Amino acid sequence: MSENDYLMIAPCGFNCENCAQYQKVKNSCEGCRIRTTKKSQICTMKNCDKNTQTNKNISLCMECDKFPCRRLREFDKRYQKITNGYLSVIENLREIEKYGVEKFLKKEKSKWTCPQCGSRLCVTSNICSSCGFLYRK
Ligand SMILES: [Zn+2]
Known about the structure:
mainly alpha, binds zinc ion
């Protein structure tokens, strides 16, 4: 495992590749760990003391003794609601812990690739932005 494998995974377990801010063509975000948007700069999990004290490039929330903390649980709930249960960042972190980041990323790729046209899917939409395929409820 190299640090690069973690580059697209935010400390909270969110995969930045599936984010609308990352996918947009103009002024896109490069991910929470690289060049970020204003929104992620103020992110409470990314800027959590526990996180900034450890190795920034590979720190993930499940390494914390407070995992899953209230903030993370609320964030997780929000995304479960938006995606109708398709995305749980806490579940992502548990999978990384259990199977390793390499396996996780492989699974993520198939989970977030449109089965109809092969485009990358986005958490905030239940249809593929390229072909309109409905990939989740
Ligand atoms: Zn598609």
